[in-house]
Amino acid sequence: MTNIQVGAMASANNALINLSMELTNLDMDLTVLANAKAKGQALFATKFIKKGEPVMFLDPPVMMAIDSESLHRTCYSCLVTKSGMGRCGQCKMAYFCDKSCRNQAWKNYHKYECPILRDFKEVLTGSSIKDPPRNFRAVLRLILLHKAGKVSTSALQEVADLWHRANGRTDEHDNMLAQVIKGATETDASQSCILSLLRVMESNCYNIGTFSGDLIGAEVYLKISRANHSCAPNATFSHWGLVMWDRQSKYLTLFDKQMPAAMIVARQDIAKEEEITLAYVDIELELEARKHRLRYVYGFDCACPRCEKEEALCREKEQKLQKIASRT
Ligand SMILES: [Zn+2]
Ligand SMILES: [Zn+2]
Ligand SMILES: [Zn+2]
């Protein structure tokens, strides 16, 4: 990202937005959610999609938070990055570019989270960590919006269910954060639901990048999170693993239907009814590195055709080596 000129990114952005506006009027429903054999839910193409064509646009994020190190220079509401913004006088953590952003954020979500963030920040005084962690803030907001009746219990469960790996690791730190959220919000959501949400924020999130190449936060999308992984995926983000935000248009308001920010495009021709797959990890990684990351972060052993093929090649090599070794 760092090598890309700002001007080039700005025009790429315009092209993206023009394209998305054009396509909004067309048949957008190129994918459908269905149950796949042995895989649970999966996304399938409803018609032939040519290489390079959009497969889907992003739905509004269900969870998002700004990275701790970017808080001081990113508007909490519209994600504009600049210096000299006004800080929330209560939590002393959220920064806003102007009054209207502050008012909008306050009305929609910040009034619920601000007192808890303030208390958390006070506890952190004197420690090396300055602000409540990103994933904690993302989950806290969702839980509070659920408590306020702005997110239904079924919608909350749908997000939590994205974490369905039975062999997911347990993490003491996350357990503690889940306990804090449960206690501070007095939510009726279970602690295991909160723990799942923390896991989802960790494993299903995409980085938010500005058009000048800075990474400023992360967010989770419900629909694309249902696409299964492949190490040789047939679809990809228009920017790999990155959601680009247009600084000019203020379209980030959680849970509001607004213009899509980025899209998934076909890496190759996709046949009608073919499953849509995305890579959860960098596909440039070697077999062992990919498998390790998928197991550690996502809790599953990849058995995609590429992994199977590469594993077979490895076994063949080993057998040949063993033959050589047995001759000596
Ligand atoms: Zn703003
Ligand atoms: Zn505040
Ligand atoms: Zn694989």
UniProtKB/TrEMBL annotation:
The lineage of its organism: Eukaryota, Fungi, Dikarya, Ascomycota, Pezizomycotina. Keywords: Metal-binding, Zinc, Zinc-finger. InterPro entries: H3K4_H4K5_MeTrfase (IPR050869), SET_dom (IPR001214), SET_dom_sf (IPR046341), Znf_MYND (IPR002893). Residues 19-281 form the SET domain. This is Uncharacterized protein. Gene3D superfamilies: 1.10.220.160, 6.10.140.2220, SET domain. Residues 75-114 form the MYND-type domain. GO terms for cellular component: nucleus. GO terms for molecular function: zinc ion binding. It comes from the Eukaryota.
